[in-house]
Each structure stands twice: as C-alpha cells, then as structure tokens.
Design goal:
By secondary structure, the chain is α/β, with parallel strands linked by helices. The protein has one domain: DHBP synthase (Alpha-Beta Complex). Helix content is 27%, strand content 22%. The protein has 6 helices and 11 strands. Strands 1, 2, 3, 4, 5, 6, 7, 8, 9, 10 and 11 form an 11-stranded mixed beta sheet that branches. Strand 2 and strand 3 form a beta hairpin. Helix 1 packs across helix 5. The longest helix is centred in the first third of the chain and has 12 residues. The chain is globular, with a radius of gyration of 16 Å.
C-alpha cells in the first residue's frame, strides 16, 4: 500500500520532501502534483519503476516521456538545444509547457521516442515538485496521470489513493489537481510546432 503525504502547496514540509526523495531513490513510483495536473514519476535509471508507470498508463514505447528539471541548467545534459529553442524555453519557464527535443547520449534509448530519438523536457511551476527536484539534484522521469480509456487526468488525491494506492509507492496530496494538460511544443527544428494545445499562453510561442 502506498504511503500518503499531505504536503503544503506553498510551504512544503522539508521532512516529507526528504522522505519522498528517499522513496524515489529506492526505485519507487510516486504520484505528485504539478502546475498542470497530477503526474506519475520515478528516477532515471530504474527500469522496473519505468515499466510500472507504463503499465499503469498502458503506454507503448512511442509515447514521449518527460524529464522534469528544476531549471534550464539541467536540460542541456539530456537534450540538444539550439539558440532559438533556448530563448523560447527561457521565456516560458517555469510553466506548463513540455518541449520535445533531440535526446543526447546521456538519455537511455528506452526513454527516447524509438524513431525520432526525442525526449520531452519541462520546468514545472509547482513549489512541491521543485522542492523534490532540488533535493534530488537530477530530473524526474514523468508522465501525466491519465488512466487507460480516460479522457482527463485524475484530480482528487483521495480518489487517486483509492484507485492507485496498491500500484505505487507514494501519493503526494498537494490539493486538488488541474484538468488541463501541458502545451507540448516540438523544438527539434528551427520553427516551434505546437503538438498539443494545453495550459499556458499559446500566443507566447509565436507560431
């Protein structure tokens, strides 16, 4: 049965953040709030945790996974960012945007899109998530919490616990989550391409 932490959305309890990171460091799968909706996450390098997330979401290898980073300084390690892409990302982060970029060699092949060799990256505007990322000192592998055959993400932490408490290691209750997914922007080429219109200011992307 998953542990269940109620963490203050504006002033996260340091003790609980540390415990959440310990669970992630032990290969755990965590459900946590973001600035768009609740998400599933695990640390990089834990294949079993990744496969658990894929089973919960019923995802195939073509689904682009996302690396949540504490700031843009982490992104260059995992994705190839040209100057125009960096300027746009800097103007939109932190925020509810996911950027598709070519993955570097530091990203395991199983995390990349099998044909395009891309990875999703983003810097969330959520105090709890940023506290976890700063304590982890590395990105969090993540995907939105949308169950198979459901059209929208789960928003109620109590319902999340009831439905998924036996399948994950930790559920972080940071209050009710949102229903709107991130806006996904393909930045592989020079011109940004909106792949999925979601939360955020689309006009700021300039497409």
């Amino acid at each position: 049965m998953a542990q269940y932490f109620r963490i203050h959305p504006a002033n996260p309890q340091k003790r609980l953040i540390n415990q959440a990171v310990m669970i992630l460091n032990d290969g755990g799968v965590v459900i946590y709030p973001t600035d768009s909706c609740y998400a599933l996450g695990c640390r990089l390098g834990y294949k079993d945790a990744l496969e658990r997330i894929r089973r919960i979401r019923n995802l195939d290898e073509r689904h682009n996974l996302t690396l949540l980073c504490k700031d843009l300084s982490d992104i260059g390690t995992y994705a190839m960012v040209h100057n125009a892409a960096y300027r746009l990302m800097k103007s939109l982060t932190p925020g509810p945007y996911t950027f598709l970029l070519k993955a570097t060699r530091d990203v395991p092949r199983r995390l990349q899109h099998p044909k395009r060799k891309t990875i999703g990256v983003r810097v969330p505007d959520n105090v709890i998530t940023l506290a976890i990322l700063k304590e982890m000192k590395e990105p969090l592998l993540s995907t939105s919490l949308i169950l198979p055959e459901e059209g929208s993400p789960l928003t109620d932490p109590g319902q999340i616990n009831a439905e998924l408490g036996k399948t994950v290691d930790l559920i972080i209750d940071g209050g009710y989550g949102g229903l709107e997914l991130t806006t996904v922007v393909d930045l592989v080429d020079n011109e940004p391409l909106i792949v999925r219109a979601g939360k955020g200011n689309l006009a700021a992307i300039g497409t």
